[in-house]
Design goal:
Blueprint lengths: L4 E4 L14 H12 L3 E4 L9 H6 L5 E4 L4 E4 L4 E5 L4 H11 L5 E5 L4 E3 L7 H4 L6 E3 L17 E7 H14 L3 E7 L6 E8 L4 H12 L6 E5 L5 H6 L2 E4 L5 H6 L2 E2 L6 H9 L2
Parallel strand pairs: 1-2, 1-12, 7-8, 12-13, 13-14
Antiparallel strand pairs: 3-4, 4-5, 6-7, 6-9, 9-11, 10-11
C-alpha cells in the first residue's frame, strides 16, 4: 500500500481537550503534505465549526462535515456536496417531536438554529458550529429553509424523553439516520441527532478520494468514536485513538498508544 491521503477526525483525535491542534501533530501534518500526501478532515462538526482547525493545519481543500452529509472546500468557501434532510422527513419530525418537552436545534451547512429555549444548551451545541442563531419558527414551513436546507436536527432533554423520541422517529420516519447519546456535562440528559440515511464518514472518505483522484485503498483514516467506524471500514489503513471504545478499536487496522501527539505517531508509521 502506498498511502496518498490522510483523513482525520477532529474532536478526540486532531484536537486536544481545549480544542486546539497539538504543535507536534501540526508539524507532522506539514511535513507529510510536503511529501505530496493529501491531508483532509472528516468530522461530525459543521463546516463553520471545522474551518479553524483546518486552517491551523493549512488544510485548504475539500473536507467532510456533518458525518458525510456535507462536503466543503475550505479555501474556495464552496459546497461540493450537500445531502440535506428531505422536506417530507422534516415535516414528519415536526409532527413527532412537537410537545415532547425537548430542546430542538436545526443544523444547516454552517449555522445551528434554535428557538428561544436553545440557550439552555448553547455552549454544548456550539461544538458543532459557533454560529448559533435564534428563530421564532423551526418548522418545515419557515422561509429560512429556502436558503439553509437543513442537514440535521438535534434534540436534547431527559434520557426518558429522548429515548421515547428515538423510538418514535426510528419507527415512523423512513430514510432517517438517528443516534442517541448522553450529554456528558449534564447528568441525566441525552441528545438525539437525526440526519439523512446514507451519508456517513465512510461515504465522505469515498467521495473525497474520488475528488482528489486517490484510490480508497490508498487512504488512511484516524478517529476515536463510533461515527468513525464507517471510514475505518473502507480506508486502506485505519488508526483508532487510545481512548476509542472497544468496538471502534476492533474496526481499525491499527491502534495508537496514549500520546500527546497521536497524529504524529500515525504519520510516522505510515510515512517513515
Amino acid at each position: 500500500m502506498t498511502a496518498r491521503l490522510l483523513a482525520l477526525d477532529l474532536d478526540g483525535t486532531l484536537l486536544d481537550e481545549t480544542g486546539q491542534v497539538r504543535p507536534r501533530d501540526r508539524d507532522a501534518i506539514a511535513a507529510v503534505r510536503e511529501r505530496g500526501v493529501i491531508v483532509t478532515i472528516i468530522t461530525g462538526r459543521l463546516a463553520a465549526g471545522s474551518v479553524e482547525a483546518a486552517r491551523a493545519c493549512d488544510i485548504l481543500g475539500a473536507i467532510g462535515c456533518c458525518d458525510g452529509s456535507h462536503l466543503y472546500d475550505v479555501g474556495a468557501d464552496q459546497t461540493l456536496a450537500h445531502h440535506a434532510l428531505a422536506a417530507d422527513t422534516r415535516r414528519s419530525l415536526d409532527a413527532l417531536l412537537d410537545d415532547r418537552e425537548l430542546t430542538r436545534y436545526v443544523f444547516s451547512s454552517s449555522h445551528v438554529f434554535c428557538d428561544d429555549l436553545g440557550h439552555r444548551f448553547a455552549g454544548y451545541v456550539r461544538t458543532w458550529s459557533p454560529q448559533l442563531s435564534m428563530l421564532d419558527d423551526l418548522t418545515e414551513g419557515a422561509e429560512i429553509w429556502d436558503d439553509h436546507a437543513p442537514l440535521a436536527q438535534l434534540v436534547i432533554g431527559s434520557s426518558q424523553r429522548v429515548t421515547a423520541a428515538f423510538a418514535a422517529v426510528t419507527a415512523e420516519v423512513p430514510d432517517l439516520f438517528a443516534v442517541s447519546f448522553a450529554v456528558s456535562h449534564a447528568p441525566g440528559t441525552h441528545a438525539l441527532l437525526m440526519r439523512a440515511k446514507g451519508p456517513s464518514k465512510g461515504t465522505a472518505l469515498a467521495e473525497l478520494c474520488e475528488h482528489y483522484g486517490v484510490e480508497l485503498a490508498d487512504s488512511v483514516a484516524v478517529g476515536d468514536w463510533l461515527n468513525d467506524v464507517p471510514m475505518f471500514q473502507v480506508a486502506g489503513r485505519s488508526f483508532a485513538m487510545a481512548v476509542a471504545p472497544p468496538e471502534v478499536k476492533r474496526a481499525a487496522t491499527d491502534h495508537l498508544p496514549a500520546s500527546a501527539s497521536s497524529i504524529a505517531d500515525a504519520i510516522a508509521r505510515c510515512w517513515p
